[in-house]
Amino acid sequence: MAVLAVSPFVRFLVALVAGIGMGYAVTPAWSLYIAACGLFVFVLVSFITIRCITRLRQYRYYGVLGAHILLAWGLVGFLLVWKTDPAIDRSHFSHFESKALVGWVADEPVERSDHIRFPFVVTQAYGDDGLFEATGKLMLTVRLDDSATSMSLNYGDRLVIPTGYQAVPPPYNPGELDYGRFLAGKDIWHQDYLGVEELEKLDEGDGSLIIAYALSLRRRMVAKFSSYIPDPDAYSVASALILGYRAEIDDSLIQTFANTGTIHVLSVSGMHVVIVFWLLSLLLWWMDNGKTFRVVKFILLLLAVWGYALLTGFSPPALRASIMVSFVMAATIFGQQNRIYNSIAASAFFLLLYQPKFIVDVGFQLSYLAVLGIVFLHPLMRRFISNNNRLLRPVTDYIGMSIGAQAGAGPLAAYYFHQFPLYFLPANLLIVLPASVIMYIGFVLLLVPPGMLASWAGKMLEKLILITNGLLGYIEQWPMASVRGIWITWWETVLMYIFIVAVAMAVLVRRKQWVYSVLACTALLVCTSFSAVLRKSERKVIIFNVRRNLAIGLMDAGSAWLYTDLPAIDDRTISYSVLPALEAQVPLKAIHFLAHDSTYRDPRVYTRSGILQFGDVRLMVYDGTEMYAGHIDVDILILRNNPRESLPTLMEAVDCGKLILDGSNSNSTIARLKAEAEATGTPVYVLKDNFAYVWSLESPMS
């Protein structure tokens, strides 16, 4: 409450976030949007009226005026969230029949082996009556072929594409990333898949000239790294760490950084901006005396921070970090350290005012929670870990900041990513100095002209990065380096934050109310842990929706079996659509990979020729290629790849309790089989464009 009293931007931020939250809680509707606009106008008129009365009659309606201001900011957040939604935006391209869409590439395209992906801003559409204005964005994926070498797509390129977009589907498997919600946070509700031959490039130069220049500059800098750093891993880490360019970094390397709690190093964040700020501030130490010198120093530091953001292509994490550091830097330079919460709130307020949907961006949430953890906990830890040694104090300070950042961001990171790095402290202590040196050497390499000095800088950079990668890889191999399969609810996450705050306050103010809060939180967390253990002991069968592929998960008493036609457990589809549900039950090392055409036998699972026996449960996968003698009783029959037999004919050999039709079947086959199942009274579940079939064996089949 004291923070709210002395920090006006904290109050503004709370009101704005409350309005944004209300916008997400309520389904957008045009009539409600108009009503909210009317209420906003009424609040403004009421505020102006009361303010005029206050001036004329010399009354002080500060409480009423403050309530009006907070209500106005709440309404602003509510309206901004809804403004771009297709249900509100009457000019959105999805409201019109069109043959083609005209627009421009809204970000630097991300290129993979066989496709490129980028957001596409629609500005016009072709209909029966010709060209007309339209708005909206869609995520465009372009398949590449041999002819694609002649087409180069960059930010700002103007394109014509045929109309064939679709709404982004919801997640179809338990624990799967909600890609639709992720894209909606970027004002994207539709996607399209095209061949490169279907695109027509008109011209260049749309979008922001500053962002176009920043991305072009970053491409040149990345190309320079590529010229002087031959090792692909070292080159990709240098590009990510210094320039925020992660398109070419290997997935296994990303996992190493994630498992050691240093993934933030690969995304331009506050740490990177602080490293730039710290070096220049150290060089300008002589400007700390005198108000004029401090102002000049602040301007120079501000230029350095935003120059670095320019170098990274003005990526969202870089912009977020630069704005946050700029406000905190202003408070520090001008002696307002005691209002640090107000500075942090001001940066978040203006970011959300610019783009309110940053509130659902995981990077935004983790960045601010990490900073708040440092600001709140680090001074407290310095009281108990006093160190006057000039050599050791930076180490103890960094330990305190690392613990504070992990306490701030850790619970939410565990909620989103379902893992927690146990050795984050030694890993972060290990990487802070190399990361700083890597950045400084990288700046030297980028600034010097081609030649001997650039070559030496490239070699030094490569060796240092490879040594750092090796050390992190070594830490990753330590026992229990990363605890995976953490599945907590949102309210358990909130409970963890209450616990952290309660512990800190109990130590700080030593009041019994906070001690009781700690005990209550501990009891609730222990209860939720017991319920989580009970959930992990459930026996389950999950038939995943992996489009045309097959994936069946069998889970029992700390083990799981994955029966699939996908090539390996590290396949991208398995990683994103299947493993989250399996790892919620068992650790990765306890998952047995079973190829669909193999024979497998152990005391609990037997598979052969499309038959799966899981305890007393039997499943059968049939696509018309296998011939079975006699009569087979199965609990679940999965039909794939458009079998030609009619269901009555098939059921002369197979008696099933449930029929499942997956995404490998055509719509016409599904319609035929559904009709035949209804005629025979067989329960049927269509997996295509539907959620995975989940059967808890403690409950009857549904």
Task: Compose a concise summary of this entry.
With 702 residues, the chain is an alpha+beta fold.
Write the SSE topology.
Layout lengths: L1 H5 L1 H18 L4 H28 L4 H22 L16 E6 L4 E2 L3 E13 L2 E4 L3 E7 L14 E5 L3 E2 L11 H6 L5 E6 L4 E4 L5 H20 L3 H12 L7 H9 L10 H14 L7 H21 L4 H18 L6 H15 L7 H23 L8 H25 L1 E3 L2 H24 L4 H25 L5 E3 L5 H20 L2 H25 L3 E4 L7 E6 L2 E6 L7 H12 L7 E5 L4 E2 L3 E4 L2 E4 L2 E6 L9 E8 L7 H4 L3 E8 L5 H14 L3 E3 L6 E4 L6
Parallel strand pairs: 5-8, 14-15, 19-20, 20-21, 21-22
Antiparallel strand pairs: 1-3, 1-6, 2-3, 3-4, 3-5, 6-9, 7-8, 10-11, 12-13, 12-23, 13-14, 16-17, 17-18, 18-19
Description:
The chain has 702 residues and is of the alpha+beta class. The chain has seven domains: 2-83; 93-207, Beta Barrel (OB fold (Dihydrolipoamide Acetyltransferase, E2P)), CATH 2.40.50; 209-261 and 423-485, no CATH class; 273-360, no CATH class; 367-420, no CATH class; 490-536, no CATH class; 540-696, 4-Layer Sandwich (Metallo-beta-lactamase, Chain A), CATH 3.60.15.10. Helix content is 51%, strand content 16%. It contains 21 helices and 23 strands. Strand 3 (115-127) and strand 4 (130-133) form a beta hairpin.
Defining traits:
702 residues; alpha+beta; OB fold (Dihydrolipoamide Acetyltransferase, E2P); 9-stranded mixed β-sheet; 51% helix
Q: Which range best describes the helical content: under 10%, 10-25%, 25-40%, 40-55%, 55-70% or over 70%? A: 40-55%
Low-confidence stretches: 1-5
- Helix tally? 21
> How many separate domains?
7
What's the total count of β strands? 23
- CATH architect. name of the largest domain: 4-Layer Sandwich
Shape annotation? globular
Q: What's the rounded overall pLDDT mean?
A: 86
CATH level-1 class of the largest domain:
Alpha Beta
Gyration radius, to the nearest Å?
A: 29 Å
| N-end to C-end Cα span | 51 Å
Alpha-beta classification:
alpha+beta
CATH topology of the largest domain: Metallo-beta-lactamase, Chain A
Strand content: 15-25%
